[in-house]
Amino acid sequence: MTQSFSFFVYKPFFILALVASFFVAVSTVQAVTLAGPAATIVGKESEYITGPIDASMHSDLHLSFNYVAEKLDTGDSFIYGWRGDTEEVLGTFVGLPDGATAVPGDESGSISIDLPETAAVSDLEIFIKVIANSTVDNDSVEIANLVMTGIPIVIDKDSDGVSDAGDNCLHITNGNQADFDEDGMGDLCDDDDDNDGIADENENSDCELDDDISCGVIVNLDEDNDGVMEGDYCPGTLVDMAGSTKLNPNHWRYNGTQWTKGLARHGWGNSNAYTMNDTRGCSCDQIITILQGHTGENYLGHRKFGCSAGLVEDFLEFVW
Q: Please, what is the end-to-end C-alpha distance for the chain in angstroms?
């Protein structure tokens, strides 16, 4: 977008005329022009203000403009500078000595000046203030082609080549910016890439980019966390309730993590050892319940002192 505006200062009304062209662009290596709105100022002390301009994400700020001064005498001047948290005058143009005259256009030139780093603020204003006396009515100042430039500061926290301002996944490297469901969140940061209402962690990997809700929902094959993924005969594995009572030698009990065996004096005992996969995900209490229901026998002693090797072997024969 280009803006142009003109202002002139004539005594006694002192109208400042300013012609400027601004271009707003985005670049990571080239200086960009920061724009301000047009304005007309009338008064003895007339001021043009560009602002506010967001220069907070720019460096190497630079101001330039052309001027034409006609018959400004002693006491006439204009100053230019910037405002933000503070105000700083960058320079002053003063009029000709008393009695001096100049052909219109003779007193002309250009201003080109770097702004300090402190000017890189979010509410930067460039001001040009004209001060003239009121004894002569044909003095004038024309300022044109005002341009203020800066180089964009690119912040890329995840170093993926995409600036944070446009990165759809700020903290994870994703240079390709893939966004399957086009929700503004990159796939690597999106818990539901296909926006089907099913979290990616609950879908098979080949269904994360498929919004068909019937595609590949992962079923938890070990809901009771006993380590038995397939063929779990007791899907609700229970810890043996008699875990605090004495465990007879060569008897087994499930403690919620593993099968434990009671040892006879001097550590003697048979060499049998069982895992939850061996017992199809069933604890001693569950083995007793299953076998009692199957045989009609009472295994009360096993509930109190643990499952004997014979009882466990009977169960394995039954379930396998």
A: 80
List Cβ neighbours of 22 (8 Å cut-off, separation of 6 or more). 1, 2, 3, 33, 34, 35, 36, 147
The Cα 43–Cα 11 span in angstroms is: 9
Rounded (10°) CA dihedral 63, 69, 73, 78: -20
pTM of the model: 0.44
Cβ count within 10 A of residue 314? 16
Place of tokens 């003779």: 106
What is the Cα–Cα distance from 35 to 31, expressed in whole angstroms? 13
Cα-trace Rg, the chain:
42
CA 146 from chain centre, in angstroms, equals 36
Angle between helix axes 284-295 and 309-319 (nearest 10 degrees) is: 70
Sign for the CA dihedral angle at 146, 24, 162, 155 comes to positive
Domains and CATH numbers, the chain: 17-152 (2.60.120), 155-219 (4.10.1080.10), 220-320 (no CATH)
* pLDDT tens-digit map of 128-159: 887 766 555 455 667 777 888 888 888 888 88
How far is the CA of 45 from the CAs of 48, 111, 129, 132, 180, in angstroms? Answer: 10, 21, 7, 7, 59
The Cα 177–Cα 185 span in angstroms is 9
